[in-house]
User: What shape does this take?
Amino acid sequence: MKKILNLCICLIGLTAIAGASPSNDVKPYPLDRCIVSDEKLGSMGVPVVFVYQDQEIKLCCKACRKDFDADPKKYLEKIKASGTDSKKSSTSEGQSSGGTVVKLTVDGLVCNFCASNITKTFSKLPEIAAVYVNLAAKTVLLELKAGQKLPEDKAKEIVTEAGFNLREVTYPKESFDSIKETLKKSSK
Assistant: This one.
């Protein structure tokens, strides 16, 4: 009987603690993508959701939590910056940066974890505006920020260090979004 009573007291206490934090003070997560990897939320399973300070955070996977915890200020600033234009997300959606598009054909991309790792690696580069990985097409699509360049040897080094083989580098004339949509359609 004492065990049941103690269990009930613990449950009441936990319920009170959970209800004590006013949910009105927590800012909702404004993006449909992971703030760390730029992967679509849900594409790697159930998103990791937590509150940091007064901001709700949603990540595509547990692995991104390490990167977030290493520099939360950086990611909070990205979230804050996304609020300046409610139509934009952390992706290249609607961008008119005019940056060069680079299409990498990469052997060895086989799973969402591979895609996430290569996305994170390229996203950390200051010259990169957007990254999209299509596993079916074995393609890593990059959009550079306006006026920026990515030397082929640097791209090859990044791909090789991630454990993949860079087969081809091309510079298509089409926009990043156009190529991305074509790749998505061809993968279905």
In short: The chain is about 40% helix and 20% strand.
